[in-house]
Fold:
Amino acid sequence: MAKITVKDVTEAGVVGAGGAGFPSHVKLAADADTVLINAAECEPLLHKDKEVLRKYADEILQGLAAAIGLVGAEQGIIGIKEKYADVIDLLRPKLAANMEITPLADAYPAGDEFILVYDILGRVIPPGAIPLAVGAVVMNVETALNVARSAKQPVTEKFVSVAGAVAEPVTLLVPVGITLAECVAAAGGATIDDPNYIVGGVMMGYLEDNRDALVNKTTGGVIVLGDDHVAVRRRRWDWQQIVRIGRSACDQCSFCTELCPRWLLGHPIEPHRAMRSLGFNLVGEANVAGTAFCSECNLCSFVSCPEGLDPRRVCNQNKQRLAAEKKRWEDPPFNPGRPALHMENRKTPTARLMQRLALTQFNNVGPLDDTLLETRKVGIELKQHIGAPCEPAVSPGDRVAKGQVVGRRPVTNGKPALGAPVHASIDGTVTQIANGVVWIEK
Ligand code: SF4
Ligand code: SF4
Structure:
């Protein structure tokens, strides 16, 4: 395999394929002692990472080897749930001497990189920091595949699990810029009259009412659920409703804090105190400031709270307000020497999560169909990553080929902004550039 460089990864537009879209070239230009492949995939009903790992094991291990070389790491570790024994057996004989597998419990949120780093390396990432702060680089499975391919092809395709109330749950290979509705149709369509799309995952995803919203480099899943499903109803609660019920019904039992994965890690977040602030408007109070470190895993709202309240939304609301007011957590300083508490016996088993969220009614499979889904039109978003939106590199009327750059990072004082270029995912003609999207039609 040709040697992969940071320049390859940059120009291929590789970003984190399973999260917020952090540009991979930035991570791979750093120094770390360990590269972790995050194959934990703890969101219920999603099967993408395991399926992709099984199918493209050799390339993903090449991506891991490249990442190890680029950051100067001593080791690479794949974190995958122990229940996927067949995938682990497939991988083991292929591992290089500096690679290993850590089997993980079937629990949520095993895929949160803070939890993954703790579970595998026993290191606590400080609140607000990234894994590099403790010498680790974490890559999603699909990101590692894209790194392996970066010298040959840019990121123009995406694996997306479609699950929930669809006829044939599946993991699809689709062009970036296809619509969610096309993905759902390819999974046999919705089996209910009132389909709602949750993009990402039932726990951490967001409700998308626009069926023609676009798949980008970070889209990992589309879960179809009816109006009456708790994960839909909760997301439709308005803020005043959350405040009114939270004020009157929160008995400060603190279960939300006792099971909060970030609090268990030692981070200064206590959702029950954020709930208490609803009655007093103590947004600037120190423990409420800790809401800045909420991962929005939703465990407190969907599992922990016996009253069915929504501490996650309260934390999120506080977080947004604190950010707008430029308030930061400063006191007391985080003490990385504080041991994590009871992490082992307070994990939420996936089976319990499935039951709690009434997801056992769905066919919990997602076999990979890696025949690229065909489409005549795509919309390439100019911002599919953390950082600055790209500037268009094409104009309406231009003919473009699949893989051609259609958006470049802006450059200020000779320095490209944080971000990643975006590329055409089909051959065609640029028909329009509007609202941050380059539209291409065959
Ligand atoms: S678990 Fe529910 S009732 Fe208990 S403190 Fe948290 S929000 Fe309040
Ligand atoms: S969503 Fe709740 S449980 Fe999850 S990190 Fe935030 S406060 Fe903690």
User: Anything to note?
Assistant: The chain has a mean pLDDT of 93. Residues 250-256, 272, 275, 304-305, 307, 309, 311 surround iron/sulfur cluster (ligand 1) (CB under 6 Å).
